[in-house]
Amino acid sequence: MNESPERAEIGGKRKMDMTTITQYFVPQIVAFCLCVGFVMKRWLPMDNKWIPTALFIIGIICGIATTGMTFDGVVFGAVSGLASVGLNQSFQQALGLNVRPNIEMTDDEVQDYELAEEEDEADEEGEDDE
Description:
With 130 residues, the chain is mainly alpha-helical.
């Protein structure tokens, strides 16, 4: 049986070989998007769930700027922008910065926790006004 070079068998399961995807990475775009993502997370008042979408779009713009308005430019930029998100997550997990305790909470406990946080923030704002 002939296997395509894009697939490999690992642990009895067929997996895609990552070299197919990595040929679309542009390291400069990945580095730029990684920096932009860091700035967005630290200093812009936005929900973190929008950062991957923003980096996807920024990556596409950078890809078009570097290779011209071609399909390859769009793909290179999109893959590089999303790769920066994955790279950031890999760094955080490797350094132990993104570790959440394995605690299961009921919906009521989560709601109580969120209310307590909101009250703490309101108390801090009240102290700042004085």
